[in-house]
Amino acid sequence: MTGKKVPTRIKRLVALYNILPNTIWSVLNLLPISVFCYSLINIKLFYSFLTISLLSIFLPKTFFNSIQLGKTPAYYKKTGVTFINRFTQNGDVINGLIRKKFPQYKVVSTGRQSVNKVLQQTYMFEKFHFAMFLFFILVNIYAVKYDYLWWAFILSVNNLIYNVYPCLLQQYIRFRLQLSGKVKAT
Question: How confident is the model at residue 185 (pLDDT cuts 50, 70, 90)?
Answer without folding.
Answer: low
